[in-house]
Structures are given as C-alpha cells and as structure tokens.
Amino acid sequence: MIRWVSRKILVLGPLMVLVASDAFAGEGLDSGDTAWMIVSTALVMMMTPAGLALFYGGMSRYKNMLNTFAMTLVAYCLASVIWMVWGYTLAFGPDKAGLIGGMAHAFMRGIGVGSLAGTIPTSVFALFQMTFAGITAALVLGAIVDRMKFSSWIVFTVLWITLVYCPVAHWVWGGGWMAEMGALDFAGGTVVHVNAGVAGLVLALMVGKRIGYRKEAMFPSSIVLTGLGAAMLWFGWFGFNAGSQLAADGLAGSAFLVTNTSAATAALAWMFVEWLVTKKPTVLGIASGVVAGLVAITPAAGFVDLAGSLVIGLVAGVLGFFSVSKLKSRIGYDDSLDAFGVHGVCGMWGALATGLFANPAVNEIGKGLLYGNPKQLWIQALSIAATAAFALAGTGIVTGITLWITGGLRVPPEAEIEGLDSSIHGERAFEIV
Question: What average pLDDT does range 251-274 have in this prediction?
C-alpha cells in the first residue's frame, strides 16, 4: 500500500503492531508529507458524500435518488464514528494471530498529538484510513438501491465495517497474514474493491430483485449527475492512490501518473467497445469506464510503470463493459448499479495484474511475473480468492444478523413502487409536472 507500511510489513512482519504508536517517531515529522496527506485525506473524503453520491444518485431512478444520497451519506458518517471508536484498532492495532488487530487503540487510546506513523501524525494516518472504510461500505450500496430498508442499511453498515472490512484491512495493511505472505495492494484492490464488489453481489442476491426488473424500463434519473460524480471520483482518486504512498515523493508522483492514464485508457476502451457492440457511445459508458480504470489501477498504482497502466486500463474497460452488459444478464442477478461488475470484477483484474506488471524499477518491494517472479502472481491470486471467500461468507452472516435485528431487509412492495424518497424520507428530488 504505502512505502513505510509495506517495508515494515515485509521486513518486520509482526512488529507492525507498533504502527499506531511512537515506534517510528525516530524518522521525525515531515511537514511536506503531512501537508500532502491532509490534502489527500480531504480528496478521498470528497469521493464518498460528493462523488459517489452523485455517481450512484444519477444512475438510480428519479423516485429513489434522495434515498441513494442518504444511504451514501449515512455510510460515511457511520464509518467516521466506528473507525475512531473501534475500527482503527481492529485494523491497525496489535496483531492477533495475523487475523485482526487488538483493542489497544480503541477510542484512539494511546495516540496523542505527538504520535507519528512514519513521517506524518498518526491521527492523519488514521483519518486517511477512515476515508477508505467509508467509501468501501458505500460502494456496496450500488448493488441494492431502490429496495433496501434504510434501517436495515444502517445496521448492515455497522456490522459489515466491523466484521468484514476491518479484518481484511488488517490482513493486508495492518501486519496480518496476507502481508506476511507478500501480497501487494497499494491502495485497495482487494481490501476495497474485491471486498465491496463481492459483498454487493451477496447482498443483492439475499435482498432479491427489484419489482419489475427486466420487465419494465428503469431509466437513470440524471446521466449528467453521474458524469459529474465520475469526474469528482477521478479527481479524488489521486488522493486515494497517490496519497497511499504516505509521502510527497517520486513514487507518489508515479502513482498519480498511472492512475490518470489507466482511467483515461479504460474510458476509451469501454466507449469504443460499446460503440462497436451497440452502435452508440453513451456518456454512462464513458463514465463507467473511468471508474473501471480507476478500480483496476488501485492495487497496482505504486508498483507499475506507464506501460503497465495502459494495459491495465485497456483490459479494465473491455472487461467492465462485458461484465455489466453480458455477465449480469446471463447469471440473472439484479446488481442495480453494477457494484460487482465494475468494482468486483475490475478489482480482481487489477489485483492479478499487479502480480504481472509490478516493476522493481518503480518500487523495489514489488516484482511481478514479467520481471522474473512468477510466485507473485500466485500470491495475488490467493489473496483475491481469500478476500472474495471471506467477503462472501462474512457478508452472508452479516446480512443474516441484520435480517434478525430489523425483521426484514427490503421495503414493502407499495413503498418500492411509490419510491423510497417519498415513502422513507418524505422528500422528492424532482418536481414531476
């Protein structure tokens, strides 16, 4: 993920339990790194309650737009509180058997104004990581808009961040077993996108299909808002990926460059494939291609060069289009906004591609198949499979607990037909004349 975390993980292993303490304070605070990380944190924060809310909101139906906004916003708010109370310590606290962090830093205990994580304040590092938890939970939402109870979503989000997201974050970034194994995930291919994509698929299957799915037209409420949301996600993703270096240095600049290149390449690939297949290059397709490219480059951003990013983006655009247009219809699941097709599938490709294209000339930590290390590809494949399996089982359990607590996952049929903006929130996004 990040230079200092990755090196400590791969070299020191279990000693990464010290990450949240003053253990690395000897490096000293760097004001440039700190300023960059504060900006990066703000960029990633904007991605959820602004970028993703617009991206998802524009794709939802007009009668459910505000509900989509509300569920996105509340996911970020819940993550903000959960992370500081118990989420951070579960992910980055003292390692317990490579599976989870201990509770030493619950309520941010032991982390003072002078505590450092590398060259930045631990408080900034914790807040940066919190924004990742927030957007990961919100990404799951895309699979079940139009039909899930607001109360059930709240319960699900609390449980899912705690029981699914935090363990996987610890495995990869907190000194857990995947870190010990040498899995490469610079900014969240497995932790964020595979995790959220598979969770969305499981939740969609358990909640069930929308009323009228494939029997009536379900038009997006505003492609303009979706396009604007995609642009804001693209902008914020520079903090997401380049910020994951935790330093204002050359590797952060390289991550910035390949992130933009992959996004642009994937958008063009999606557009041309769609144009060839359907005869129409849609704005929704271009916007989706941007996100597919961003998703795919996320785990690889700090490990690959420009050539690698071009291939990753090209494949992501083509793979994303066919996952959304063909895979979903053949299997028959109702993933409303294609959380699995874009984030799950393209996240798996990106994590696997990291094992192919990781270039030690970019980052000495990463060496992929094309540079003489076939073992890395196997490690990446194992990390994908383990994350997907855990997300599948964990999300199933969390959804079952949510069902038991709330008495139901989805809104009554009459509320779904009326629209969730009105039936749940008593508001309307648009005045229908």
Answer: 98
Q: Is residue 71 part of a domain?
A: yes
Per the domain annotation, does 128 fall within a domain? yes
CA distance 71 to 55: 13
CATH number of the structural domain spanning residue 344: 1.10.3430.10
Per-residue pLDDT band for 90 (boundaries 50, 70, 90) equals: very high
- 11 belongs to a structural domain: no
7 domain residue, yes or no = no
pTM above 0.85, yes or no: yes
- Total tally of structural domains belonging to the chain: 1
Domain enclosing residue 337, as ranges:
16-425
